[in-house]
């Protein structure tokens, strides 16, 4: 009888672990979909959509080391001299930790800024928190990748 309860406990625990993995996987997929939405919003300069993805406490550390708040970040996207034509995540991974997720990847953006064409490849880290049932990005940082 003792063996039966031990086996039952192991089965229940392994089932709970699998359910947690599936849940984390589902949440990770949701976060990656939001990352993709972020790219589309950048291309369209849709600051309203971006604003919904970013927490009010959002901070961005750019490739030059500058720090921008949510309002400053959105203003830079809205600026007339910033004209992205393509924003693509080339690769990314997500790790979910309960109501927090960290995305690490490579981002490529092309466009015109101040009349000059540019193409950047950046390694990025985005931190997402589930606030009131919705995922929002609370921080992003990126580093410019040199061409090899």
Approximately what portion of the residues adopt beta-strand conformation?
A: over 45%
User: Uncertain segments of ≥5 residues (pLDDT<50)?
Assistant: 1-22
Helical fraction equals: 25-40%
The largest sheet, given as strand count, sense and whether it forms a barrel, is: 6 strands, mixed
Q: Give me the count of strands.
A: 6
Q: How many helix segments? A: 3
Distance between the termini: 64 Å
- What radius of gyration results from the CA coordinates? 20 Å
Order of helices and strands: HHEEHEEEE
Strand order of the largest sheet: 2-1-6-5-4-3
Shape descriptor reads globular
**What structural class should be given to the helix and strand makeup?**
alpha+beta
Compute the average pLDDT: 87
Describe this structure in words.
By secondary structure, this protein is α+β, with helices and mostly antiparallel strands. Helices cover 40% and strands 46% of the residues. The chain has three helices and six strands; from the N terminus they run ααββαββββ. It has helices spanning 2-44, 47-53, 70-78, and strands at 54-61, 67-69, 82-97, 100-113, 116-131, 134-144. The protein has a six-stranded mixed β-sheet with strand order 2-1-6-5-4-3. Helix 1 (2-44) packs antiparallel against helix 2 (47-53).
């Amino acid at each position: 009888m003792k063996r039966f309860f031990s086996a039952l406990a192991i089965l229940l625990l392994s089932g709970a672990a699998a359910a947690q993995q599936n849940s984390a996987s589902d949440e990770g997929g949701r976060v990656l979909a939001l990352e993709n939405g972020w790219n589309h919003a950048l291309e369209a300069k849709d600051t309203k959509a971006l604003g919904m993805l970013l927490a009010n406490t959002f901070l961005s550390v750019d490739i030059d080391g500058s720090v921008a708040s949510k309002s400053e970040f959105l203003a830079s996207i809205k600026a007339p001299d910033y004209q992205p034509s393509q924003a693509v995540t080339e690769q990314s991974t997500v790790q979910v930790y309960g109501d927090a997720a960290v995305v690490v990847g490579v981002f490529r953006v092309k466009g015109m800024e101040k009349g000059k064409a540019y193409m950047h490849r950046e390694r990025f880290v985005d931190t997402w928190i589930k606030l009131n049932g919705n995922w929002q990005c609370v921080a992003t940082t990126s580093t410019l990748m040199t061409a090899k």
